[in-house]
Amino acid sequence: MGSRSGRKFGYREKVMMFSQLQVLLHSGLSFSRAFSLLIDSAGTVEKELYSRVFSQVVAGRELWWSLEQDGNFTALDCSIVRIGEQTGRLTDALAFLTAYYRGREEQKRMVRSALSYPIIILCIAVAVLSFMLLVVVPMFEQVYARMGGELPAVTRKMIAVAGNAPVILSVICAGIVICLLIRRCYGTTDAYLCLVSGLVMRMPIAGDLVRKYQVARFSRVMHLLVSSQIHLPHALNLLKGIINFYPYKKSLDSVCRAVEKGSGLADALDEYESLFGKRFLVLMRVGEETNSLDKALLSQSLELDRELKYAIGQLNNVLEPFLILAIGVVVAFVLIAMYMPMFKLGMVVR
């Protein structure tokens, strides 16, 4: 079932819900009293969702089942709450979900802040270049046509590019529309996901960042699951519903089957060294052999988070001035190409 409110119940809203409910239950309040206070303190949209869930619980349903029926919660949410209810550790389950979604929200903010400025700069660059090719260059072309005379080669080429600009922009827009249509029609197929993820992983800088992000996410979620004493096969099954990036999702299918047959986690991951990295696999093996897998996963997730933040910060430091310089060079080239006949005319007059 989808969201009934018309508004997405995102990470921030889940953090608020799970953390507040966990605090209220941990303080010793009954479930009914805690949920009633949660409903009273919620906003309009959240209050509707909480009321729907609570009405199901009052009718005799389990909390996990009520969350599942609402449609705003993932398989991870429902499974963790179900385990908490069945083991009598609901507050621990809610604390787990709070920590998980708080980390996801922090990662989301980090990625958004890293991408927002370059995207804005690129949009401005496209707009400026389009304006110059569609408006500025044709104005110069009309002036030079009335003046007559031989134009420099670079000016003629620029005028030719400007003349073809509408066709070029139309082809680019058509290409974007076709890509979006292909994604909409085939975006969930294995062939499409394999092709797109393969291209992303082969990109020089982006591929490494994606690899670190996925391994950090794997480590964080596995740490939370293992530290909550969830059996490894069940933890991997839950993880399969969380990690959606195609190469890692497919690798988890194989890893999960191997672990269910009795293989160790490190042995099952050895086949995917290109995805997880040798250092990660060594840490997993050491963690299993010393019975400290949760600590190894936590250490790896924290280290990869630090590396990601540093790498994204360095990328921004390099990318921002590079984009500004590139825009300046393009604009300067167009202006010089269009003013060059005037420079030559001035030299002739002298």
What would you say this structure looks like, in words?
By secondary structure, the protein is mainly alpha-helical. Helices cover 83% and strands 0% of the residues. It contains 15 helices and no strands. Helix 7 (153-186) packs antiparallel against helix 15. It is elongated. Mean pLDDT is 84; it is low at 1-6.
Order of helices and strands: HHHHHHHHHHHHHHH
Shape, per Cα inertia axes? elongated
Overall pLDDT score: 84
- Major sheet details: none
State the helix count.
15
Helix share of residues?
Answer: over 70%
Radius of gyration: 28 Å
Please describe the structure with a list of short key phrases separated by commas or semicolons.
350 residues, mainly alpha
Concise summary:
The protein is mainly alpha-helical and 350 residues long. It contains 15 helices and no strands.
Which helices and strands, and how do they pair?
Elements: H1 11-26, H2 31-40, H3 44-58, H4 63-70, H5 75-87, H6 90-147, H7 153-186, H8 190-202, H9 206-227, H10 232-240, H11 246-260, H12 265-269, H13 273-276, H14 278-289, H15 293-349
